[in-house]
Please model this.
Amino acid sequence: MSILSDLIVRVLSTMPTPVMRYFSSKYIAGVTVEEALERLQSINDEGFAGILDILGEDADGERGARAALEAYKVACSKLAASKLISYVSAKPTHFGLRTGEDLCFEIYSALATHCQGLGQFLRVEMEDHTTTDGTLRVFNRLLQKHGNVGIVLQSRLFRNGSDIEALLAKLPADRTLNVRMVKGIYLEPSNIAHTSYESIARAYVDQSRQLFEGGAKVCLATHDSQMAEELVALVSELQIPKERYEFQVLMGVLKPIWKVWLDAGHPVRVYVPFGPDWKAYSLRRLKKNPKLLTQITLGIFRR
Ligand SMILES: Cc1cc2nc3c(=O)[nH]c(=O)nc-3n(C[C@H](O)[C@H](O)[C@H](O)COP(=O)(O)OP(=O)(O)OC[C@H]3O[C@@H](n4cnc5c(N)ncnc54)[C@H](O)[C@@H]3O)c2cc1C
Model:
């Protein structure tokens, strides 16, 4: 982290909470599930589906992980009662991956069962490379038991093509692999990951093809309009029906392009993060990926 980035993070951390909340409200839906559902309502009204995410990572041991499960269960029940169009997404370390893989599996599995009863889908997110193996093991176990779960894969990682191959090979016969493709938000070392824009985007398009050809549903999570043109061409070349792809975007980021995609007839889903941990979470993320600082600082000045 550069001295300037460090300074900006320090300034942000000393900002009074209401001021920081005002500026971050473009990207974060609020503290409570009710606030998140209100944002989701207006997102749905504009024709976009949603993804609810309770902000949090690195749960405080088993107790923290179980508390996260309870918060998700409440959010899913309230989401179902609201009849809004959305599902939920959760981070493995928020569900105790660093405490133990069995615990993490048990928690995702309990939430998948709860979601199944409500007719909802659950996505397992992907964090930095130290968690990739554990997350994939947990996800493979979930796939054996649940039909309403999906995963996130990062094109930045050299290993991603082989991970896709392995996931497709192990897929139970009655399941469709459901993947959110991302570039990967964590800046990984150059011995395990692509570091240039071109190679990350190339891998993204190639791996989306690999997934489509393997029969997967692919959620194209990006705001990169140049890469999206290639993805739209790929969808059209492979004649992928609307049930097997969608664009996914982050709330508050480059909304005009969501509209372009929606108006062109592509399904678009918006990620709506919220939760009491929003401030600490945002500061931790900014420290780990200073590139986000530029984007958020620009966002603040535009406001
Ligand atoms: C719905 C969704 C879920 C995601 N889940 C995960 C996950 O589980 N694990 C993971 O590692 N990563 C996740 N990501 C993040 C992803 O890996 C990328 O870091 C992020 O999407 C930026 O890459 P990009 O494809 O948009 O392209 P970029 O080339 O990085 O960006 C394209 C354009 O979008 C702008 N932009 C991108 N992100 C932001 C932002 N946050 N604020 C302001 N402007 C921005 C850029 O400035 C640029 O103009 C997710 C992204 C989305 C959209």
Observations:
- The beta strands are 49-54, 86-90, 122-124, 149-154, 178-182, 217-221, 245-250, 268-274.
